[in-house]
Design goal:
Helices cover 75% and strands 2% of the residues. It contains 14 helices and two strands. The chain has helices at residues 2-16, 22-26, 40-45, 51-77, 83-103, 107-120, 124-136, 141-153, 157-170, 175-187, 191-204, 210-222, 225-238, 245-256, and strands at residues 29-30, 35-36. The chain has a two-stranded antiparallel ribbon with strand order 1-2. Helix 11 packs antiparallel against helix 12.
Amino acid sequence: MSVIMRALKKQSREGEGESVSLCDDEGFFTGKDSYIRENWLHSLFGGGGSKKVKLAALAVLFVSLFAISFYIWTKRSKPVPPPTELAEFNESLKTKDKDEGKANLSKDEVSLERAYAEYKGGNFDAAIDLFKKLVESGGGVEAINGLGLSYLKKGLYSLAEEEFRKGIELNPSCAICFNNLGYLLSLKGDVAEAKKSLERSIALDPNYGDPHFNMAVLFEKEGDVRSAVWHYKKFLELRGGVKDDVGDMVTRRISELGGE
């Protein structure tokens, strides 16, 4: 029987990691391996031993058998999947999360994303088709502005101006629409109206840098170097010191104009 108890004690350690068995807690096992204090086995099945010792021994045996049976049952009822299957399951969860994230986007949002991707990729005809569909389905100012920009890149200035003005009519607080309209008007040579539109854009959003750049270009063409330098510097300030080709170009231009 001492061999059985050693086996049970070993199984308890291997199945749960480092732990103290019930027998250790009660002090039944001491010394090397399984020396049994009080000769409890003889007291249980033989004629000797007090009634309390017999009851205690029976209780320990019952609890041990119940614990082992429960341990084996839980192991069988909850099999651990192999590492490969577990990895595949986790990957499927990631894919599911991504799909659910896309599902939360409306059709208009997905199409708007596609339209701007075509625009940024230089596929202006495809962008125009997508933006048109969005505008027709009530896509809002973003779609109108995107359509105007696509027309602008194609050199269709009249159509571009029409879209920018539609955007302003729909949202009079659209600083981006006023900036784009101002830039377009400057290309058409209407400097006075271009300045008005750019000034309106700055007033609507003082932290928006693009209209300052466009104003600087206009002032430089007119020979007003001081105003041009001021707007170039303001443009850099609002960009937060970002170091890129545009920032380097503007910094060089300020230096060339004597603005340090």
